[in-house]
Specification:
about 400 residues, single chain, seven-stranded mixed sheet, Aspartate Aminotransferase, domain 1, globular, alpha/beta, about 40% helix, Aspartate Aminotransferase, domain 2
Amino acid sequence: MNREDFLILKQDIIYFDNGATTLKPSVLAETISDYYNNYSANSHRGDYNLSLKVDEKYENTRKLLKKYINSKYEEEIIFTSGTTDSLNKVVFGYFRYNLEKGDEVLLNKSEHASNVLPWFELASEIGIIIKFVDLDNDFKLTLNNIKNAITSNTKVISFAHITNVIGDLREAKEITKLAHDNDMLVVMDAAQSIGHLKVDVVDLDVDFMAFSAHKMYGPTGVGVLYGKKELLKNIRPIIFGGGMNSSYDSEYTRVYSELPYLLEAGTQNIAGVIGFSSVIEYINKVGLTSISEYESNLKKYALEKISKVRDIIIYNRNSESPIITFNIKNIFAQDLAIYLNKYNICVRAGNHCSKILKEELDIKNTVRISLAFYNTKEEIDKLIEALSNQNIREEII
């Protein structure tokens, strides 16, 4: 599906590491090159035509994102360097000042490091309590287990819409309603969902949301923090400098800018943000519904085929996303990844930045394939052929 738009696929590779970063359509490089070659000025700094054109292009991406996630206001879209940066801005810019010692934050052991370590730091700093919601037998986060974890001290739940190892699609709307009914705020990591299915922040009613451009076919070094306007008004910047202030003087007096610029200090990744606009338009043209349906069918095909591989151990057989996490009995995950590389098959091996999930899986390292709409059944067949090689253990040794 649309493989011709991804020039890298002209090489002899099979790319199954889309959960780490997706490939990029050629329109991204074209748009970025156009900026660098034809109007490479700074944004929100100049009063000349070249700079004003940059401002227009930069802010157009914000407009496109507002529509893409259905936020109410453009100033609810904050550009960051990625999901990690976005989550850190939320934790240290908002919750550091709105939580107290003894307040509880609900996490789970399937979360990415970026949605765990900032909370750990805040716990050490101000004494909040981290509670891990139990996962079910399929390592999924369920509404019932969340209910059982909530107490009168619970103030926040922070979770991934889709997790990057188990790949389960969480009931975000229901989780948010439950949280709000208990006077809790909701932080959602949408890095693994935003390029694969429709994410409507008004419908889901999440309070904060973070995602990265590079996991939705866009540039690296660009992320988005969404927050409800009334909450963002109370967030404090954690980075200070040019672009986020109106004035300051030697007496320490400073007047900071309004949203969204308050949280976008310094020169941003202008080329990346402008390039991102072309990717959003590209996704809209392909259609998220078409992408979701195609990937769902491909996942079913892949799961059916890989289930027949000898000695296969699948850890997320019942997950909803296009992620399959597995091992082959008595073969180290990284060794299997290196073996597959001989066939130009790119997979991810390791703990996938989810280091405490091993406490649930009882194993530290796994192999992950994560699919995108440019992957094919023929590529799946080649993977299965390599995994079914009778001499696989000898070749790895």
